[in-house]
Amino acid sequence: MRVPSADDRGAWTAVDAATLQALTERARATLGTPWPTPLAHDFARFYRDGDRDTYEQAVWARHERLARATALAAVTLDPVWLDEVTDGVVLFCEQSTWCWPGHDDMHAQHGSVLPVVTDPCVDLGAGEVAADLAWIDHVLGGRLDGHVPGLRARIRHEVDRRVLTPFTERRDWHWLGLDGRVHNWNPWIHSNVLIATLALVDDPARRQRLIGLITEGLDRFGAALPTDGAIDEGIQYWWKGACRYLEALEMLGATTAKPGVVAFPHRVHLGGPWHVNHADGPARPSYEQPWHVLHRLARIYGDKEAEAHAVAHRRPGEPVAHESPGLGYLLLALTDRDWAAVRPGGSPLPRDVWFPSTQVLVARSEAGSSAGLTLAVKGGHNDENHNHNDVGSFIVARDGAPVLVDPGRPTYTAQTFGPHRYEIWTMRSTWHNTPTIRGAEQAAGRAFAARAVVAGDASLTMDLAAAYPRDDIRSWVRVARLDRATGTVTIRDSWELTPGPAGPTVIHLVVAGDVTVSEDRAEAGGVTITWAAAEADTRPVDPDVRRGGSPHGLPCTIVVRELDDPMLSDVWGDRLTRLDIDVTALGPVGTLELTVKETR
Q1: pLDDT tier at 245 (50, 70, 90 boundaries)?
Q2: Calpha distance 227→356 (Å, rounded)
Q3: Do β-strands 274-275 and 360-364 pair in parallel, antiparallel, or remain unpaired?
Q4: Are strands 473-483 and 459-463 parallel, antiparallel or unpaired?
Q5: How far apart are CA 179 and CA 299, in angstroms?
Q6: Sign of the Cα pseudo-torsion (343, 230, 402, 406, in order)
Q7: DSSP classification of residue 367
Q8: Are 287 and 273 in contact (CB under 8 A)?
Q9: SS3 content of the chain, % helix, strand, coil (to 5)
Q10: Each residue of 530-557: pLDDT tens digit?
């Protein structure tokens, strides 16, 4: 455990003053008020109306209040904060379940819409509570023994019965990855179980058995990580998955991760707060990420660019961390003197990035600068973790801020991970920068994938035909390219469809900010987007397929999507605009060239 106990007064009296002041102000604002209460009827709402967020927000507010109190108790040893910690700990110990509504399997196992206290489930939420209680025991244990005798025994009892025992006795948890499908739950939960084991398990034999199971599970995640370090869920899930994996290895005394894992955050950085986003990840994650952890891991793995990216997020004079990422991260930051002492520089912003495993390319005009246009484009398939149907989609950012965008995802509900996921508009290809071909959008499943994918110099070429559930699409070749000489992005679509009647073929562009549209162009976010039919690429064409259409007058329809979900509106504002360029008139064989350049 890297955090010193509160008995180490040298460590805790040296806490950054700005952080201490901010924590104190927020903690005093809630001191003496009722604690957030996760209510039973809010838990049951997951099964009634699909809402899971109301319950979870109450739980997270409880976590954050307890984190503030724990940090202040460690710094001050004030009985007021020790009492606050005691109240928060007992409230968690008396909470019927530590699971989040969408994860607890009591409905499948018992037909209940409320927690079944005799059959605890180990999920992300349970792991988070177990780790919080373990950190509290580790940091404040000696003080709690004198202030509230018996509290530590309660902590051990609850963590054991709710997490450690079911973790060892039930080995059918889906997140173990025994079926070959490994995702961020694996390291997220295993790392929290490891923290609880190291802090709370005194019996050497049991401790060793737990560590063995944890290591076995982490090895499955490590084996599934691609060598290029790509995370198909995006940057938000790097923090919860790959980062947790690297931290767990560190706690186990191993630094054997595949090259590139620690580099992922800076390799998908667009500039400022913006990152390349695919799947459920947001384009603008919260600033309150545990950058100090990336800083430490980058130094362990000797990645200077990753270290520079972390340091770029350190703001001198401002707090070193916030409680929202979790108690453990807060305690680590407060006692990390290296992090408190760093002075920011620039993020590396690599000129060229290519992830072969996920078929994602990022290209910018110049390394180290977000100025001008940056292109991000993906191939991949439609069975990625937290998948959206987005094969062939692209993002164009100007000065680091996306203009042609991937919307991300709304607040999670019961529908999000259910059979009707792809009825949610943000998950569908129609709300990504992809075509709808003869009325068909892309389908979900690994078979629906890009083929003939070739990465070139600031360009990606791929055939999108197989991403669609139709047998009359012979090819749809998309070439996305950044021309560094002119600072221009071009997207060239060339298609060959079999003859015959069919629905409309439309190329979608999802645009952020204010948009103005004329006949063959649009302006938004400091860029001008133009489109026109072009001569098709020279390639064999079936003689019974006729070229058709006119190079002029392609209809463009404007669809405005008002945003009232904070998961979307906090990123994009009150709306997104979709341009639907109808290329049906170009016939079964055609080419459209889209050009994006900075507005002069």
Answers
A1: very high
A2: 9
A3: unpaired
A4: antiparallel
A5: 34
A6: negative
A7: T
A8: yes
A9: 40, 20, 40
A10: 999 986 544 343 444 333 333 457 999 9
